[in-house]
Amino acid sequence: MKHQEILLKLLEVTENTKDSFQFLKLFRSIEPEKFAVIYADSGTLMESAEALLYNLKLLHKLELYPVVVLDKDGISYTNLFYRNHTKEDTDSTLPGKLFRHFNQVETSVASALAENKLPVFIAEERGSGLFEFLTNLCSSLKTKKLIYLNPRGGIYSNGEKVSIYDVDSTISPDPIDSVLFHSCNELYKNVKDPEFGIAITSASSLLKELFTIKGSGTLIRKKNRIDFISDLNSIPKPKINHLIETAFQRSLKPNFWNQEFAGILLESEYKGCALVKNTPYGFFLSKFAVDEIARGEGVGRDIWDQMVQRFPVLFWRARKENSISKWYTKVCDGMQKEGIWIYFWIGVKEEHIQPICTFLRNLPQDLEAPSNNTK
Question: What is the average pLDDT across 160-181?
Answer without folding.
Answer: 88
